[in-house]
Design a protein that fits this description.
Elements (H helix, E strand, L loop, with lengths): L7 E4 L5 H12 L3 E6 L2 H11 L3 E5 L5 H14 L3 E6 L14 H22 L3 E10 L12 H20 L6 E7 L11 H10 L9 H12 L10 E4 L7
Parallel strand pairs: 1-2, 1-4, 2-3, 4-5, 5-6, 6-7
Helix pairs in contact: 1-7, 3-4, 4-5
């Protein structure tokens, strides 16, 4: 018997990395999973990698029409959502004094606006007592140079959790945030090897995290194991944010 038997989960941006690892684990634990991705080819690859109990819906979490289409598919196929992992996000460096409108808009449109509407548009399908998980970052509490807009976007996500658990308390829907440290996923590749090495040097165990280490935490927050956990920001970073 799996920890998520009979549950329906939606995971955005699950074509690679942490979200894909989470989708695989959720299916192994008995859930049916809907995943999204911007690129149809990558989405098809992810669906094949997951193998069963999965539907892929192409779309961009920053596009409200795409979100509407996602939830129409969920409504038609399963009629409910028990778990939502709003994991879509992006980040790039931008030093104050050099930040452009596009830099700001691209990051906030996906990380903040996209997260808000991913959650809000899911609510009509959400079962009472369900679990909402949002993707934060330790950047939200750190002062990494030239990472200010991204950090601010993740601080906003963390703030959402505090408010929304109150807004949704009558429905007993829990809202929590996973804030990863550096994880060995393709999102780190554009930052270059120097940045990756610098991040690694800041982690007490001396190596960056693995996607599966995020997935197991997401499973904890999605399942009844965390029934009394609500509104937390759970750092999954090998201690990097604490020293």
């Amino acid at each position: 018997m799996g920890k998520l038997d009979g549950k329906v989960a939606v995971i955005t941006a699950a074509t690679s990395g942490m979200a894909l690892a989470t989708a695989k684990l959720f299916v192994e634990e008995g859930a049916y999973v809907f995943i999204t991705g911007r690129r149809q080819d990558k989405l098809d690859e992810a669906v094949k990698a997951i193998g069963r109990n999965v539907t892929g819906v192409q779309g961009d979490a920053a596009n409200l029409a795409d979100l509407d289409r996602l939830y129409e598919v969920v409504k038609k196929e399963k009629g409910k959502i028990d778990i939502l992992f709003a994991s879509a996000g992006q980040g790039e460096f931008g030093k104050i004094g050099e930040i452009t409108e596009k830099h700001f808009d691209d990051i906030f449109n996906l990380n903040v606006r996209g997260t808000l509407f991913t959650v809000q548009k899911a609510l009509p399908l959400f079962t009472d007592g369900g679990s909402i998980i949002m993707n934060g970052s330790i950047a939200g509490i750190k002062g990494f140079q030239s990472f200010g807009v991204y950090a601010a976007s993740k601080a906003a996500v963390r703030s959402f959790a505090r408010t929304w658990l109150n807004d949704l308390k009558d429905r007993k829907i829990r809202v929590n945030v996973i804030s990863p440290g550096p994880i060995d996923t393709p999102i780190l590749d554009p930052l270059g090897p120097d940045a990756k090495a610098q991040f690694t040097s800041m982690i007490p165990r001396g190596e960056i995290g693995r996607p599966e280490e995020i997935a197991t935490v997401a499973l904890f927050l999605a399942s009844s194991d965390s029934s009394f956990v609500n509104g937390v920001e759970l750092y999954v970073d090998g201690g990097m944010s604490q020293i």
